Structure of HDIG domain-containing protein:
Amino acid sequence: MMVVSTCLIVYSLPKQAKFSYEIEKGRIWNQKDLISPYNFAILKTQAEIQNDRKNALASTTQLYQLDANLEQRQIDGFKNDLEIKWHNAGIDDRKKPGYVQIGQALLKQVYDKGVVTLNSKYQQTQSYSLTILQGNIATEKNTADLFTKESALTYCNQALSKRSDIDKTFLLDLLQNRIQSNIVYDDKLTARLETEVLENISLTRGMVQKGDVIIAKGSVVNDEVYQKLISYKKAFEDNSRINGDPKLVLAGQFALVAITIALLMIFLYLFRKDIYADNRLVSLILLVITAMLFTLSMAIKLQLPNLYYIPYCIVPIIIRILFDTRLALNIHLLVVLIAGFFVPNSFEFAYFEITAGMVSIYSIKNLVRREQFLISALIITFTYFVSFLGISLIREGSLVDIDWYNFVPFIVSVLLTLLAYPLIYLFEKVFAITSDITLIELTNTNAPLLREMAFSAPGTFQHSLQVANLAENAIYAIGGNALLVRAGALYHDIGKMENPLFFVENQNSAFNPHDKVTYEESAQIIIRHVYKGIEMAQKANIPEIVIDFIRTHHGNTRVDYFYQSFLKNFPEKIINENTFRYPGPIPFSKETGVLMLADSVEAASRSLKEPDEKSISALVDRIVKYKLDQNQLKDCDITLKDIETIKAIFKRMLMSIYHVRIDY
């Protein structure tokens, strides 16, 4: 599995040599003198390229097409219009030829000069040059030398105003309908010309010759030197892609990734053997790591504008919620180490992502509310902002020169980090893992099983709540998963719902159903609540890690009351002790061990007739000693010091529950 993951990561990574130097504008060059090993062109900056594009477009002539036939069509149309409207004009018929001649002459003058429709892109200027195409002939003109439809009509109006022998209104009305643009903008040809001009723009300016000093040791990386270094990096990567040995690059990548994955497995073996021994959990961890690095590789291959769009913090958040803080931090550091070899400005990248990852882990150390995801996102954003501001100030030395738009990718990254929530749910279902989020949902007393227990076995429900409080405080003091032990405590006795009246906490009258059955049957009914609880929990899809509390909360102890009663009343009979013994297993973790003690202590405390400091202290000591003598805690990782801490907490809480006054 480790080999498969390593191969998948290496396969997805870009196969090119890594540039040897970190390039940061404004910093002192502490390396040795950098000598150019070959000739390379100096790349223009994006600002220079944009300026060249702007100037090229501004100098490009707009292309227009001349419709040479429009003039005659409009003159013919004018004559037809005049024939139709003449009879209603009330003008002497002898003047008709003169009207035709004047109108025709004006239209000819207008069209000979040309009527153009101005391009909206250039209307902010008073006039602009253009090229008029007529067949294969191109003529350079300026819009100032041409008519628009409005200026052509004004010209006709002025010409007719000088003649007193005609009806200007009648003739001008005919002319305005026949003045159309005979010079029309050709957007397709112009766009093609602009594309050709832009494609011919040079992306470089000048050359660095082989043997030239690119930058001397101790020099400041100013704008000019920075551009040379960027150009050298591009030339180096292009050259290595052509001349480098891909097999050696592959071998180097495999070695780096293999060491990283091996370190992870060593960490699991030394500190989390429970995960190391579970292929399912190891597969999940390797899947998360591989998926993140694969995403980075795809972003590099697709030339994403900024690699900070990728939600790197999603990995530590997922691992933290599904596992623990140490593992999350360890994995995040390893992922950033691998990614740092394939992103530009590796130090900056590492600083951004390590700090943000650490903050994301710390901000959800104790996940008890859903809104902590949003709070965590805000804290991560703030961390990114402070880091961005600090690095920008070091690089630019001025607030004015900071390009705040470059912070947008970090905001997008944080928003994408919120995808951790649905991914956690998916991983829980696929890999059968229980996260703190699921435990929070299970500890809600409105959960179906708990709500049912509150109605059908209210005494048991109250007992479970008290046990949960005792166990949670104890495990918090000695170190462990307090949320898990609370969930286990709330569900450990759900099997009692099958026969609630057979358990003393649910009996509210003098009637005791055990009086009507044998001691063996009573013991089996009591023991059965473990089997029934497991069955009910599995049917309700309660996680196995919580069901373990049901299995182990009595370990393999005897139901002593009925066992001793049997011995007392039937001393002559041979008894099978297993009839009165719980099936086990015994507790095997801090959490299950603490629950067993809390359950026994809380149940026994209900039998105290006059609870006081002395009786409670003696009760707790006796119960804990009995469990130890019965070897019920031998598989738990609980020390003698932990035992003393647990007893002290139980005593203090029970005295508080029973309102015992403490002597000062």
